[in-house]
C-alpha cells in the first residue's frame, strides 16, 4: 500500500495562500467599515445642517411686522447685518396652555464658526441654542420688494417693513458653498402716523 501525505512545501504553500486570502479579506472589511463611518458622519452632518436651515426658514416664514422690543424707534420688524439678524415671529407653540404671548423675539448670529440662535417671549426669559458648529457664513443679503439685494436691513421703506426674501450662503461641514434663498411673508403694515 502506497500512503502518501503532504510534503512540508505543500503545507507551507497552503498556509501562505490562506494567509493572503485572510489579509485581502481583512483589508476589504476595513475599507467597508471606513466607508460606513464616513457615510454615517456625512449623514449626521446633513441632518444637523437640515435642522439648522429648517429652524432658520421657519423663523423667517413666521416673521411678523411687529416692532422689535430692543429697537428704541419701535419702527423695525427686522434688523439685519452681515452676520446677525433679529426679528419678531409668531407661531410659538403653547402645548401646556400657559399664559404667554404667541409672539417671540428671535436672533440668529454666526460667530467663531458657530451658528447661534437666541429667542425670548414676552415673559423676558431668554433661551439660546447652538444650531451648527464649524460653519462659516459667507453672505447674508436681504432682498427688497423691487428684487434688489442689500447687505443690511432695514434698507429704507416704511416702518415695520420686512424684506421680500433673504439669501444666505455658507460653508458648512461637508457642504461648502451652500446657497439658499428664503421667501418671507412680505406683509406690510400701513403707516398710521
From TrEMBL:
InterPro entries attached to this UniProt entry: N_methyl_site, Pilin-like, T2SS_protein-GspJ, T2SS_protein_J
Membrane topology recorded in Swiss-Prot or TrEMBL: Single-pass membrane protein
Keyword annotations of the record: Cell inner membrane, Cell membrane, Coiled coil, Membrane, Methylation, Transmembrane, Transmembrane helix
Subcellular location, record wording: Cell inner membrane
Chain ranges passing through the membrane: 6-29
Coiled-coil residues: 32-59
Family under the similarity heading: Belongs to the GSP J family.
Protein name: Type II secretion system protein J
Native organism: Pseudomonas solani
Source taxonomy: Bacteria, Pseudomonadati, Pseudomonadota, Gammaproteobacteria, Pseudomonadales
Name of the gene encoding the protein in the UniProt record: gspJ
Amino acid at each position: 500500500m502506497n500512503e502518501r501525505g503532504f510534503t512540508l512545501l505543500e503545507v507551507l504553500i497552503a498556509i501562505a495562500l490562506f494567509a493572503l486570502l485572510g489579509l485581502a479579506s481583512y483589508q476589504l472589511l476595513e475599507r467597508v467599515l471606513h466607508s460606513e463611518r464616513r457615510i454615517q458622519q456625512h449623514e449626521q452632518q446633513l441632518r444637523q445642517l437640515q435642522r439648522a436651515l429648517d429652524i432658520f426658514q421657519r423663523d423667517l416664514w413666521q416673521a411678523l411686522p411687529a416692532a422689535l422690543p430692543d429697537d428704541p424707534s419701535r419702527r423695525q420688524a427686522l434688523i439685519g447685518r452681515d452676520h446677525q439678524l433679529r426679528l419678531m415671529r409668531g407661531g410659538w407653540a403653547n402645548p401646556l396652555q400657559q399664559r404667554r404671548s404667541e409672539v417671540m423675539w428671535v436672533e440668529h448670529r454666526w460667530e467663531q464658526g458657530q451658528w447661534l440662535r437666541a429667542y425670548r417671549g414676552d415673559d423676558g426669559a431668554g433661551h439660546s441654542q447652538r444650531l451648527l458648529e464649524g460653519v462659516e457664513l459667507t453672505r447674508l443679503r436681504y432682498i427688497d420688494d423691487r428684487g434688489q439685494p442689500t447687505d443690511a436691513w432695514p434698507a429704507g421703506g416704511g416702518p415695520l417693513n420686512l424684506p421680500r426674501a433673504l439669501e444666505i450662503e455658507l460653508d458648512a461641514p461637508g457642504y461648502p458653498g451652500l446657497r439658499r434663498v428664503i421667501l418671507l411673508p412680505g406683509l406690510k403694515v400701513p403707516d398710521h402716523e
